[in-house]
Automatic annotation (TrEMBL):
One of its GO terms (cellular component) is periplasmic space. Pfam families: PDZ_2, PDZ_6, Trypsin_2. One of its GO terms (biological process) is proteolysis. It comes from the Bacteria. The active site is at 124 (charge relay system), 154 (charge relay system), 228 (charge relay system). This is Probable periplasmic serine endoprotease DegP-like. Residues 266-360, 378-470 form the PDZ domain. Substrate binds at residues 124, 154, 226-228, 244-248. The keyword Hydrolase applies.
Amino acid sequence: MKWMRHNRYLSILTLWIAAIFLTTGIAVDVEAAESDGTLMVPMNISKLAEKVRPAVVNIRTVKTMSGGGRVFRHFYGNPFGGRDNPFKDLFPQLPDEGPHDFKQQSLGSGFIIDTEGYIVTNNHVVEGADEIKVRLSNEKEFDAEVIGRDPNTDLALIRIAPNKDLVALETGDSDSLRVGDWVLAIGSPFGLEQTVTAGIVSAKGRVIGAGPYDDFIQTDASINPGNSGGPLLDMNGRVVGINTAIIASGQGIGFAIPVNMAMNIVGQLKKSGEVTRGWLGVGIQDLTDELKEYYKIDQESGVLISQIYEGDPADKGGIKVGDVVIAVDGNPVKSSRELSAQIANLPVGKKTSITLIREGKEKTVEVTLGKRDNEIQRVGSDRRNNGDLGLELRTLDPETAQRLGFESDAKGVLVTDVASGGKAENAGVRQGDLIIEINREPVSSIAEFQSLMSKIKKGEAIRFLMKRPRGGFVVANMTK
């Protein structure tokens, strides 16, 4: 009993001492085994920061902006009206040809990936730059050149001259990251070089609308303007992400590109200066319960083909609108994001097996991946009001299609207004929706719309299949 009491007091004393050390800011090395359920506390962060800092760089760029911008007009515009320069009489030597080009400076971060001088950063840091200066942690400064950029993922590879001062970071495995793992961010927020912040992985696989290949790591490690392009590191000092985006109105919400995806792109940039991706030539979207019912799909997961680009690989391979893709080269596909990523990672010209469900039956087609080719076709435009449903409609024209983000050869009836409280509004129809089918019958004009509606008796079901601007298919159910 005395031995047990002694151990209990010793445990309490140990915890009390550890609490004092943590609250007073004294570094405590703690390694807790996962099996015992204790909290993982990062080991000495100051040592880790000291180790990786030499590989993190500050990037300063200069861009030429034309037209003078708001600042130029503010100082040289006439506040009393007119276009004359009010300083002309005082300073006749001033030119009178209007706004001039001006130089805009911007800041960012990056990190060295090898001692040959290659540095990873964000595309938006160096895009359009006339001059790029790289400053190391020892304050030595170098001119840099752009090796390659990929706007779709906001990644860029630049290079400085090799020298003995260069220290490279090791890359880790972003796939093995878990929500709750500790991470470190280093960069130059607001131009404050070599700033270190720590936090955890808040989420993975975030889609924030930044581009077609969104797959971000979310972290609460403080990231601010100027951090762009800097590394997100695990507790072993390995790069697991590239800090890229923030939510302006949010605090403790930052986003990083997973390093596993980034280094594949960086490898292509290093080799050829550009990134080539496989292209299927389709519009896609995730399945909804309404779409499953409309197309009579029993499949639990997969990706619906909502659009086919004429003459592109999917069209040539026999894929059709309404098909549900469930695998690419035997690899399962559960979401549109997964399909986009899998196709993008395949080389142009590769013969690819696409497994899909069509009318309830599984089917495999062979598609040779390539690039998209755009064409524009004309469609007439007239307008009609359908009072029974509370809709104002018009046939889609190419200019409107382009403005709303529909495909160039889209056909259908465009919803230009929806009456408040009407049947259509209650069924979920919105202004800008494109009605392409009524009860599974295609519709491409006002005349066809009226003809199909006339065949439906009062009290019978009406089902619209619609495309939403820059979105996917939507089904609206109502009765006449």
